[in-house]
Predict the structure.
Amino acid sequence: MSGNERLRRRLTDFVKAEAADKGFDLCRIARPDAIPQAPARLAEFITAGHHGSMAWMEETQARRADPRVLWSEVRSIVLFGMNYGPDHDPRAVLAQTDRAAISVYAQNRDYHDLIKGRLKEVATRFAARGGADVKVFVDTAPVMEKPLAAAAGLGWQGKHTNLVSREYGSWLFLGSLFTTAELIFDEAERDHCGSCRACLDACPTAAFPALYQLDARRCISYLTIEHKGPIDRELRPLIGNRIYGCDDCLAACPWNKFAATASEMKLAAREDLKAPQIADLLTLDDPGFRTFFSGSPVKRIGRNRFVRNLLIAAGNSGDRTLIAPCRALADDPAPEVRAMVAWALSRLMTAGEFRDFAAGRQPDADTDVRAEYEAAGEADRP
């Protein structure tokens, strides 16, 4: 073994040991050119409009499709996985229509902060040991972490396009370390999905137009987190009580039978976020929202979009006790909130009750709000 090969082995062993020491469950290494199919697939995704209103995906397309465009000096990409497996079936809350369903990943601290902090610790020690340049990324940078993670052997991309691990099922947070150091590369994991389509069949909104393809415009995670405008009326009833994200396709995967509950305590679900009362959350003003979700990824969508989502859940609940908290928001300063008040009340009230309520109001200055009242008034209901 040459001196260069011994150095590669030492640095590879070192970074993997550091990863384990910092709480990462998996650590593998990919070549910078390991995802040659990515540019064409990303271009197809964007051309089809499946990215919805996420304009930043198109703006960063070249850098996202090829790690060497993002950083030309990169020689090795280290991929890290941290298990966030829940201690309960996240789908159980869906039957409790007076409760709100929040995605497992958002039931405690923002994983971006946790993972990036740990990655920086690994990167600092690795750079000091090897003298190489490093950059760390967690989700927000234009890095195709899932294809790279599959190429590095952390798992494979399932038919729902998410990463699946033989050890941890669908519950892995990903992060990456780009470096100028030459490391030893791991073998890619092969696809173990077979003929299974459990994840596809579990999707409430039919967001998968084909195997291994996602149309974000129909995905509840996109609609409740990324989408800023009104949500299509045809999709609202399908959202149910999911107010932030959706775990249905992840939770349906049979490989989860091998998954373990997350060992990182900062990722353990807060009890008050496992199944919070919709009525309680509807009372949150902006300061209250910021306080309640301090340190949570939910905070980043802002109070107005959050309440918009809550009102859709309220409208889907069939719970007439939610009429009062919905009515209390009818004059909210945010038009997206006022619009969804109309929709929610039109589903919770009888046609006569809603007609009387709407008749007692002045026409709204916002066109979207007026459109909701008009559509609700025209609906054929008892």
